Amino acid sequence: ALAEKGKAPVKLRVTVSRDRVQWVSSVRADPDRYEGTRGLGMAEAYAKLKRDSDSGAARPAEADLLLADFEAYRGDLRAAREAIARGQARNPKDERFAAALSRYALLEGEGAKALAIAREATARAPASLDAWLALCEAARIEGLADEAASGCQRAIDLAAGDARGWLGLGTVESERDNLRRARVLLGKAVSLAPQDPRALSEDGTAAAIAGDPGAARERFTRALELQPDDYVAWTGLGILEMRLGHLEAATEALLKATLI
Asked: How far apart are CA 245 and CA 251, in angstroms?
């Protein structure tokens, strides 16, 4: 199964046009995203969100969104969708819920469904940052690079200070082998979110492909310090070491990637 109850969904292998392999990011549940769980540990935050949800008490949309991501992180996408449904019922115009459903569809390997959800969300709410980010990711996974790039650019236009749009567009350009442009875009993402392991990993990958091993190694190292189970970083580091002729280090990195 792509997402199994009780286990955090980590990666999804997707082969698209030009035999390129892409990856859907793991779901992350960050208690600090919501004021009501800020400063709490993962278990404590999840328990509080569950209690509040079961009580039926009024709560902001952020609580339902975070609870849904906790459920997805635990591998229970059915419970995640139920949390989203409850939140949507209270906040029918908040397209962040549709964006979450699009991400969960990707984790289940339902790319066409994810793309349809994201397209509908952007049509309903063209000013929704999360809807355009969802479209960017879903279209990229479906191999629709032009639509993905357009969605990412709309996200940047809406929120130039948000790293996610730059990251999405940089990843699209990297996968289209527009490496010079990709490095600029991904560098912007890293500057806006220097603690985001995905931005670091993607920039490292582009640097490695572009023939800049020093920058690539620095990015991969930082990404793994922040997230030791970052599949993209371990894979990228393994390929980098192999290209440099460091076969033992390459084997070790690639083995760690396969164990994630």
From this structure: 11
Q: What is the DSSP string of 11-47?
A: --EEE-GGG-EEEPPPP---GGGSGGGTT--HHHHHH
Give which of 170, 145, 166, 148 is closest to 157, Cα–Cα: 166
What sign results for the dihedral spanned by CA atoms 244, 246, 251, 252? Answer: negative
Q: How confident is the model at residue 28 (pLDDT cuts 50, 70, 90)?
A: confident
d(CA 193, CA 220): 15
pLDDT at 251 exceeding the cut of 80: yes
Q: Mean pLDDT of all residues in the chain? A: 88
Structure tokens given for 45: 């935050």
Q: Which two tokens stand for residue 199?
A: 């931005």
- CB distance 236 to 205 below 8 Å: yes
Q: Are 167 and 186 in contact (CB under 8 A)?
A: yes
Q: Is the pLDDT of residue 122 over 50?
A: yes
How far is Cα 141 from Cα 204, in angstroms, rounded to an integer?
Answer: 20
Tokens of 77: 């996408």
CB atoms within 10 A of CB 89: 10
